[in-house]
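Narrative progress, year one. The postdoctoral researcher (J.K.) led the effort to move from monomer predictions toward full complexes, under supervision of the PI. The following entry was the first complex the group processed end to end, covering 264 residues in total.
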Amino acid sequence: MTASDQGSAQEAALRAYAERITAHDADGVLALFAEGDDVFVEDPVGAPRVQGRAAVERFYRRAAGEAAPEITVTGPIRTTMGRGAALPMRVRYTYKGRRFEADVVDIMRFDDAGKIVSMEAYWHPARARPVD
Amino acid sequence: MTASDQGSAQEAALRAYAERITAHDADGVLALFAEGDDVFVEDPVGAPRVQGRAAVERFYRRAAGEAAPEITVTGPIRTTMGRGAALPMRVRYTYKGRRFEADVVDIMRFDDAGKIVSMEAYWHPARARPVD
């Protein structure tokens, strides 16, 4: 696979991630992730890591249910010369019965097979805005 | 320092970074960075790391001179609950006598004193666009 093909594949995976999150399709989101104990989510950055495939599955099934997230991609997806890519977005979600909006950048890393091995979400809940 | 103060200080540092890069003020940019051997720049992600304060100084002095970079911040700076923050931007720069524009997200990490200890630039030169 050329560098350009790798970038295109990573970009397609991140667009699918945004669409499947918004569709509350936890199985579809999890299909983009690798297996194993090294997979992790840190959301937001600075919070305790959700470590390992089983914990990541619980994280996305809970998020898809309770938080009802909707992602709007707000700029170009940045692929790189390596395994990482950046996805800028605005996210709406429910917390304690109220709807909020936050500006987020997700940094994803990929394995050789093009599966996501980590997601780190750059945002702070204190900066989220109520939207209704 | 409260979490909110820390976020505000990091955001101010990243706005200063963008302004000083655009002013080709290498000393001003380097004043935002920590000292020591752990400091690094990876630009773009996937390229060899520029490791240690001395190498980072050479990197920014060369960039300020040859590449004549101009940064436009293109969205909210994302601070987090931890040491990392994300700076979305469009960068114009000169390469081999020609002017290019690229979409970039810089991920910065900070030490306890609020100095930058790492900069990782998410972009790919193959996706830059000529602008003249």
